[in-house]
């Protein structure tokens, strides 16, 4: 049997991976240079389509001469960058001259692909959801109070595309229905009215989603979710569907071990190109046998980064059993182009029906907060010499450090650093929203140590803690 285009794309992906950008955080200027590099290929038509609130140029990239117009827009939420990276790869594919030429030329004749990458460049450079006006532009489809929303509305009016791909990222903590898997990719064919009616346009969007879901089920079975289709009168997807474009929402969520979402980016790349090809060969082919309704709904906040099961904790001398769900929040750092982790207890109690990207079943062992090592470290150099292995095995999760050692809000050691004046605040009960620094005891022996939400790994090289925190820095 002939291998499907989607799987061929996955096999050949390395050729099209725009490797200069391979993390979630990048600067908009990097996208502009990628766009500019396309101008040497006459098949691409590049246009400045408007300006953001802070006067950053927003670009429109066009490719193809076909009657079927497909419009794609990404990163209207500045911190949702997975699909933008996939678009770089899609362009690299379209720009190439290789054994995919037959399909490429066919797409060029049958479709016109119109891309608006990074609709919210100001928010993207701050790695924040909203525009700098403080507005969620996905709730501005009607009032159009942001220049970014006016750019998108202008493109819809001008091209009146047959299909629209609304590209986003969602929380990694959603589950795909009641499955034990995260919703790694979620879809929605938004409703265009409160009655959630289905006209031809919406049905076509559902068909394309069904087609994409079938492909995904072959490689990440059970990891696909669907959004609830309650009509949102302010949102772009819902309105664009209403204005007559078959609108498809694609949301990249979480996948185990894919913190920078490079795997999900690769899936976006192959899904988009496979959809273009399916759409180019008429909607009737994709509308058969692709039941949209079979995709389970997203279940919110069903995952934690780390789930400690069956812990016995003690408050005021009374012991009881809980599960502890810990999330590792990413805090923007260094001009928003890097981040560190700050972990908290997200929930505790009976979490039997929840899941962890990482799980630790402590089977009724006692879990306590870690101790603060009494010796004071004056400098970073002193800390380099410290015997962390010894400290961790003896129940310490933080050390006292002077100003000179507290250089930034986090540290690259497998412990937290605490300024003298903050030492008292390091004594706490395990509680929701509280820090995630624990020791797990079997009798009096330390069996596991958790520092800033990471399980310390004694057996391998390195401790496995991405970063400790610096309190009082
Ligand atoms: Zn979004």
CATH class label of the largest domain: Alpha Beta
Kindly report the average pLDDT value.
Answer: 95
Give the domain tally: 2
CATH fold category name of the largest domain: Aminopeptidase
The CATH superfamily name of the largest domain is Zn peptidases
Shape: elongated
Give, in spatial order, the strands making up the sheet with the most strands: 1-2-4-3-5-9-7-8
Q: Flag low-confidence runs.
A: none
Q: How big a fraction of the residues is strand?
A: 25-35%
Number of helices: 12
What small-molecule ligands were found? zinc ion
Distance between the termini: 62 Å
The CATH architecture name of the largest domain reads 3-Layer(aba) Sandwich
Number of strands: 23
Category by helix and strand content: alpha/beta
Briefly characterize the structure.
With 473 residues, the protein is an alpha/beta fold. It contains 12 helices and 23 strands. It has helices at 5-11, 28-36, 82-95, 101-110, 121-125, 147-159, 200-219, 236-242, 262-280, 283-287, 380-384, 388-393, and strands at 44-51, 57-63, 68-74, 111-116, 163-169, 175-176, 185-188, 224-226, 246-252, 298-299, 303-315, 318-333, 338-349, 355-361, 366-369, 371-377, 396-401, 410-411, 416-418, 438-442, 445-451, 454-455, 468-471.
């Amino acid at each position: 049997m002939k291998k499907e285009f989607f799987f061929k794309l996955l096999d050949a992906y390395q050729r099209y991976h725009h490797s200069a950008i391979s993390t979630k955080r990048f600067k908009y200027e990097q996208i502009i240079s990628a766009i500019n590099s396309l101008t040497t290929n006459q098949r691409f038509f590049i246009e400045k389509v408007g300006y953001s609130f802070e006067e950053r140029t927003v670009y429109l990239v066009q490719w193809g001469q076909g009657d079927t117009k497909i419009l794609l827009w990404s990163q209207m939420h500045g911190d949702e960058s997975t699909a933008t990276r996939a678009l770089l790869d899609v362009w690299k594919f379209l720009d190439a001259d290789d054994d995919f030429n037959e399909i490429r030329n066919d797409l060029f004749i049958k479709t016109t692909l119109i891309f608006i990458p990074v609709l919210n460049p100001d928010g993207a450079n701050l790695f924040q959801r909203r525009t700098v006006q403080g507005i969620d532009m996905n709730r501005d489809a009607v009032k159009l109070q942001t220049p970014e929303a006016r750019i998108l509305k202008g493109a819809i009016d001008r091209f009146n595309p047959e299909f629209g791909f609304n590209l986003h990222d969602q929380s990694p903590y959603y589950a795909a229905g009641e499955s034990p898997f995260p919703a790694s990719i979620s879809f929605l064919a938004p409703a265009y009215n409160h009655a959630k009616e289905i006209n031809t346009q919406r049905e076509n969007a559902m068909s394309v989603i069904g087609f994409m879901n079938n492909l995904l089920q072959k490689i990440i079975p059970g990891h696909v979710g669907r959004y609830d289709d309650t009509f949102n009168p302010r949102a772009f997807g819902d309105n664009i569907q209403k204005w007559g474009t078959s609108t498809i929402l694609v949301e990249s969520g979480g996948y185990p071990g894919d913190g920078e979402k490079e795997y999900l980016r690769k899936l976006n790349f192959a899904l988009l190109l496979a959809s273009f090809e399916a759409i180019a060969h008429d909607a009737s082919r994709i509308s058969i046998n692709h039941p949209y309704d079979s995709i389970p709904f997203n279940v919110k906040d069903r995952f934690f980064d780390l789930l400690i099961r069956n812990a016995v904790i003690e408050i005021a001398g009374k012991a009881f059993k809980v599960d502890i769900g810990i999330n590792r929040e990413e805090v923007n750092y260094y001009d928003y182009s890097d981040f560190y982790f700050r972990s908290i207890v997200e929930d505790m109690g009976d979490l039997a029906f929840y899941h962890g990207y990482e799980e630790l079943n402590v089977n009724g062992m006692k879990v306590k907060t870690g101790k603060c090592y009494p010796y004071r470290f004056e400098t970073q150099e002193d800390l380099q010499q410290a015997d962390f292995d010894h400290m961790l095995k003896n129940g310490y999760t933080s050390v006292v450090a002077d100003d000179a050692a507290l250089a930034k809000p986090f540290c690259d050691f497998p412990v937290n650093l605490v300024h003298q004046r903050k030492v008292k605040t390091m004594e706490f009960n395990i509680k929701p929203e509280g820090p995630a620094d624990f020791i797990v005891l079997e009798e009096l022996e330390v069996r596991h140590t958790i520092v800033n939400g990471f399980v310390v790994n004694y057996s391998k090289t390195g401790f496995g803690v991405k970063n400790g925190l610096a309190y009082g820095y």
